[in-house]
Amino acid sequence: MATRRDELRRQWTELAPAWIKEARVGRNPTRNGLLDPPMLEACGDVEGLSVLDCGCGEGRFCRLLVERGARYALGLDLCESMIEAARELQSVRDEYRVADVQDLAFIESETFDLAVSYLNQCDLPEFETNNREVFRVLRKAGRFVVANLHPMRSAAGGWYRDAKGVKQHVILDNYFDEGERSWEMMGVRFTNFHRTLSTYIRSFIEVGFLLEGIVEPTVGPEQLAEYRELDDELRVPNFIIYKLRKLEYRTVDDIDESVVLEFLSQALARLHYFKDNWKAIQARSN
Ligand SMILES: C[S@@+](CC[C@H](N)C(=O)[O-])C[C@H]1O[C@@H](n2cnc3c(N)ncnc32)[C@H](O)[C@@H]1O
User: Fold this and answer.
1) pLDDT attached to residue 185
2) Which atom of ligand 1 is nearest to the CA of 79?
């Protein structure tokens, strides 16, 4: 009997040929014009890092991170044809594997410096398990960068248009009704999962992540000049990026006393230095 996961995989497998073709030969304003710049900025300097990409599709973002100096990138995707396509362009520094990102049991704890999820959590029936698993496989102080559909746009509704078809405003409805939504993309019906902003943020925090920032990507004149179809992005936020960090200490028991003592003794030494040299320091700053 087909499981829920089989059905979700089937939908992505049906979509994959058009998706891969667009990624390889097409023009994707949402990725190239809107989301890539803030995603790359959120990832920061990736030189020498090992990176996990959850829901990597045909591997585009892994390749971008490797080009920017990542030491190693592992891309995971539920859909075999996406992984086959990713392997066609793989280098010695990126690898791809068919896997469900809600279960990373095959990865040892504290393996990666950086994890990314580029429009994947909206596809997951249990995104919390992805958060828990990513938290586990990240090294201490590792980062998780999550791009997702904006909860205001995954709730319900499209553009409300006037009689001439001109866009008036976006409809927001059924926001608190979390669960499945059915959409059509590239001629294929597929399923996404809507959750409120507070559900996402609560889960990140409960798992132990520090929320370091949120970005609601929009466009500037340069992007608009190249991608005129992105003008809606000036009106409503369609996407959101969460910048998360794995906290080194979650409970008081995680704290190593010797680290605290070292910190305190250094602080004390600094205090003594200032006390002993206060007059000279003041004279220098005047
Ligand atoms: C919107 S696409 C994004 C692909 C890629 N991150 C990109 O930006 O081009 C979502 C991807 O997530 C994959 N996916 C969906 N559910 C998944 C799961 N449970 N585990 C791993 N991948 C999954 C799909 O097969 C699809 O390739």
Assistant:
1) 86
2) 25
